[in-house]
TrEMBL record, chain A:
This is Allophanate hydrolase. It comes from the Bacteria. Keywords: ATP-binding, Hydrolase, Nucleotide-binding. The lineage of its organism: Bacteria, Pseudomonadati, Pseudomonadota, Alphaproteobacteria, Rhodobacterales. It comes from Marivita lacus. SUPFAM superfamilies: Cyclophilin-like, PH0987 N-terminal domain-like. It holds the Pfam family CT_C_D. Residues 11-215 form the Carboxyltransferase domain. GO terms for molecular function: hydrolase activity. InterPro entries: CT_C_D, Cyclophilin-like_dom_sf, PxpB.
TrEMBL record, chain B:
This is Allophanate hydrolase. Keywords: ATP-binding, Hydrolase, Nucleotide-binding. The keyword ATP-binding applies. The keyword Transferase does not apply. InterPro entries: CT_A_B (IPR003778), Cyclophilin-like_dom_sf (IPR029000), PxpC (IPR052708). Residues 26-300 form the Carboxyltransferase domain. PANTHER family: 5-OXOPROLINASE SUBUNIT C (PTHR43309:SF5). It comes from Marivita lacus. SMART domains: AHS2 (SM00797). Pfam families: CT_A_B (PF02626). Gene3D superfamilies: Cyclophilin-like.
Length: 248, 340
């Protein structure tokens, strides 16, 4: 991770459409910028600014939705600037109650058909690709795109591969996809421009449960390789056979 | 029998919708809710109730429904042919529906999404703070034939009111503001975008719609390697092959394809109501102009209740017309038509 460049990055406040503001802590993914985004979003929510409707962190930014007639962009930007000066957000601690979760994953085969293509884009053999992806301990950097769906990183540099030019029509729930040194683990069946390299049995979103979202920002995850036979045993387990331990 | 609406037949993709959910974006759940939020507000005004009341969203055409108890209904959004026990119903209006009466709603004559509202709203369970089905997230589901939708208690009684018809059902020009990724597109690409006449592809849903044109791609250089960033309704995302997609309320919360600009909230109802193959153009406007449009929209919404008018009966739609003594030019005081 390129921590040096991110430390010299000044947070930037920009409009997002008419009724949104984006506060960015970097123009590339880095751990300090990601920490800053998670902590600053929580702080904006706590501030309870009149006219702010919702805020949410993305990878290195915080999106704030507001009523542009009632509040006004300039007044909101001034409030956010004051909040930015409260502390060194890049040095903010990770969220509390983090966990390390090992998720059984089938790499390749006909249920994750783009492993070979992704390995080639990364300049690796299929065996090397599986070794790198299954040994990586990645962190949930943000939840987004779909309900409870994590962006995880960072993967080794070889995995700085682009998205596809055309969308894959649909990957299933539990699909592990890769691009730009990140994994996304799909919580719903969805079209995607990322390459489908692994498949899990994990249900990330449980709308009728008291705890509808399985993963939280800051959690660490390893996608451990198993055979299709082993994975089929976890088919009825919403955790997909995942082993969970607290990070202290 | 409890208050409800029996669904005998219904268009594919129909769902119960309200204003959607706020507060779950950080968990990856977009706002969702009625595709045409203006139509939802119009229905609430016609029935004199809160915009929190859930309505039935009907994409392209309606269905056949039966009231289990006396209900008040309102019909808004894309105009559709509708009737009550065979007698035509005026669109953009509220009506009284007796118990066991059948409501038939046919295909849209313009626009995309029609709405059937009931007094008291559809009382389906709240999930994550909203009654809206979020089809992309798997919250709730489409409504199917055979279901009975529960209807909440109705504390009011007025019907026979209408709102002036709107013109947002045939595409047109959508105003957009620059957004934080507009700069990723060079000036010629942005100019070309603003000059192009697009057609709304048949591929469209509550997440977004695909914009078709003969132009060879609007993709920026290096656009496939940018960091995934927050998406808001109205964003126009350009995928790797240069095809623009207009993203709507039920879109994903973040995405990695760059956005050339954002359609202003005041023009989103027109955007979602554009029918398949309808024509759309885009015009970049200043923040000031966008803000004026937003202020006007908020005023329009505040004044909706006052804009209601009594429904004037169209003589051609009165069933017992022959009961009138039209030849003499005088209508008898006890003509059957007056009891209608």
């Amino acid at each position: 991770m390129n921590d040096l460049t991110s430390r010299s990055f000044e947070p930037v406040i920009r409009p997002a459409g008419l009724d949104g503001v984006l506060v960015s802590f970097g123009d590339a993914l880095s751990e300090p910028a990601n920490r800053a985004a998670l902590a600053f979003s929580a702080s904006v929510a706590r501030a309870g600014i009149d006219g702010v409707e919702e805020c949410a962190p993305s990878l290195v930014s915080v999106f704030v939705q507001f009523d542009p007639v009632h509040l006004g962009y300039d007044r909101l930007a001034a409030r956010l600037t004051a909040l930015l000066q409260d502390r060194d957000w890049y040095a903010a601690p990770m969220p509390e109650g983090r966990r390390f979760i090992r998720v059984p994953t089938v790499y390749g085969t006909d249920i994750a058909p783009q492993l070979g293509e992704a390995a080639e884009a990364a300049g690796l053999s299929v065996e090397q690709a599986i070794a790198q992806l299954s040994e990586a301990r990645v962190r949930v950097q943000t939840i987004g795109f779909a309900p409870g769906q994590p962006y995880l990183g960072l993967l080794p540099e070889a995995w700085d591969i682009p998205r596809q030019t055309a969308l894959t029509k649909s990957v299933p729930e539990g699909a592990l996809v890769v691009a730009i040194r990140q994994f996304v683990l799909f919580s719903v069946s969805s079209p995607t421009g990322w390459r489908h390299v692994g498949q899990t049995a994990l249900k990330l979103f449980r709308p009728d449960s008291d705890t509808p979202f399985f993963l939280r920002p800051g959690d660490e995850v390893q996608f451990v390789q198993v055979s299709p036979d082993v994975m089929s045993r976890h088919a009825d387990d919403p955790d997909g056979g995942a082993v969970i331990e607290a990070i202290r | 029998m409890t208050r409800g609406l029996i669904v005998h037949r219904i268009a594919p993709g129909s769902s119960v919708q309200d204003m959607g959910r706020s507060g779950y974006r950080a968990f990856g759940v977009s706002r969702g809710g009625a595709a045409d939020r203006l139509a939802l507000a119009e229905g609430a005004a016609l029935l004199g109730q809160s915009t929190d009341c859930a309505a039935l969203e009907l994409p392209g055409s309606g269905g056949v429904f039966e009231a289990t108890a006396p209900l008040r209904i309102a019909l808004t959004g894309a105009p559709m042919r509708a009737s009550l026990d065979g007698a035509p119903l005026v669109w953009n209006a509220s009506h009284a529906v007796p118990a066991n009466a059948r409501i038939e709603i046919g295909g849209a004559t313009a626009g995309s999404y029609g709405y059937l509202h009931v007094g008291g709203g559809f009382d389906v369970p709240l999930r994550l703070g909203s009654r809206a089905a979020h089809l992309a997230a798997g919250i709730g589901a489409v409504v199917q034939a055979g279901e009975v939708l529960p209807v909440g208690e109705d504390t009011r009684s007025e019907t026979g009111l209408c709102l002036p018809p709107d013109t947002r059902f045939d595409g047109g020009t959508l105003r957009m503001v620059e957004s934080f990724q507009t700069g990723l597109f060079n000036e010629p690409t942005r100019a070309q975008f603003a000059e192009t006449v697009f057609t709304r592809d048949a591929r469209a849903n509550r997440m977004g719609l695909r914009l078709e044109s003969g132009v060879d791609g609007f993709a920026p250089e290096g656009g496939l390697n940018i960091l995934s960033e927050s998406i808001l309704p109205g964003d126009i995302q350009v995928t790797g092959d240069g095809t623009p997609y207009l993203l709507l309320g039920e879109s994903q919360t973040t995405g990695g394809y760059p956005r050339i600009g954002t359609v202003i909230p005041a023009d989103l109802p027109r955007a979602v109501q554009t029918p398949a193959w309808g024509r759309l153009r885009f015009r970049f406007v200043s923040r000031d102009e966008a803000l004026q449009a937003q202020t006007r929209m908020q005023e329009y919404l505040r004044n909706l209740t006052r804009s209601r008018q009594p429904l004037v009966r169209d003589p051609s739609q009165i069933r017992d017309l022959l009961g009138y003594q039209l030849i003499s030019g005088v209508t008898a005081g006890d003509a059957p038509g007056t009891k209608e």
